[in-house]
Amino acid sequence: MIEVCCGSYEDAINSYKGGAKRIELNGALHLGGLTPSIASLTLTKKNTDLKVICMVRPRGAGFCYNDIEFEQMMEDAKILLENGADGLAFGFLNEDCTINTERTKKMVELIKSYNAEAVFHRAYDCVNDPIKAIEALIDMKVDRLLTSGLKPKAMDGKDMIKSLQEKYGDKIEILAGSGVNASNAEALIEYTNISQIHSSCKDWSNDKTTSGEYVNYCYGPDGHENDYDFVSQELVRKLVNLKNEKETMV
Asked: Where are the domains of the chain?
């Protein structure tokens, strides 16, 4: 399974045309992904047959939320599910970087009441005890864990991902993400024995109105100061073709 990380309805369409079957739908990917708009969800469900996992995240930075933020997240979750989300990606941590089990249980219960999938996202990569954390997620019936193996990129964390897959892959789906692309996906899959990858398939497009003479709204890295990121159909297709070639060989 190839899951494409999307930041807009247009990204979802590009993923669909590139041959993807499942996406994680977000807003503000430059902040790590925030809760998407309802329009991006409903249009994607209307015009594609993609399985859509929606992010539930009210702000950037970490994952230790106050009561107001948690209230908003639960309301966002309900609205997304009522509008056709096939699952939700979320993460709740305590200040000591352990899983907030009380809030995780409440979110999982809500998601399951809609017969949708519960996905704990890369908040997991900030925990202080990955074994205790994944066992807690399994106990709470989380369906899938998105992780880079507690490293900046999944290839850096491949040993941890492999270990998690070997020990817990029959109890929770392990989805490897961060820095995964057509050049390294096959090697990562073969090394870790995972069956799911998460990729942004990111490219850049220019918008000359990003900066003026005295102000700017830039967020891209050097060389992309006036650009915004988007999902590339071509890069999605490269990943999908790798999968198809592997299946044909088998």
From this structure: 2-248
Q: How far apart are the first and last CA of the chain?
A: 16
Kindly report the backbone phi and psi dihedral angles of residue 31, in degrees, each rounded to the nearest multiple of 5, phi listed first: -100, 10
| Contacts of 192 by beta carbon, 8 Å cutoff, 6+ apart | 158, 161, 162, 165, 174, 176
* Percentage above 70 pLDDT, the chain: 97
Tens of pLDDT, residues 103-160: 999 999 999 999 999 999 999 999 999 999 999 999 999 999 999 999 999 999 999 9
Greatest Cα-to-Cα distance within the chain, rounded to the nearest angstrom = 58
Strand partners, 144: 119, 173
Q: How many CA atoms lie within 13 A of 110 on its CB side?
A: 24
| pLDDT tens profile 48-70 | 999 999 999 999 999 999 999 99
The string over 39-70, giving b where at least 16 C-beta atoms fall within 10 Å of a residue's C-beta and e elsewhere, is: ebbebbbeebebbbbbbbbeeeeebebeeeeb
Beta strands (DSSP E) in 121-242 are 144-147, 173-177, 197-199, 202-206, 227-231
DSSP structure class, residue 59: S
CATH of domain 2-248: 3.20.20.380
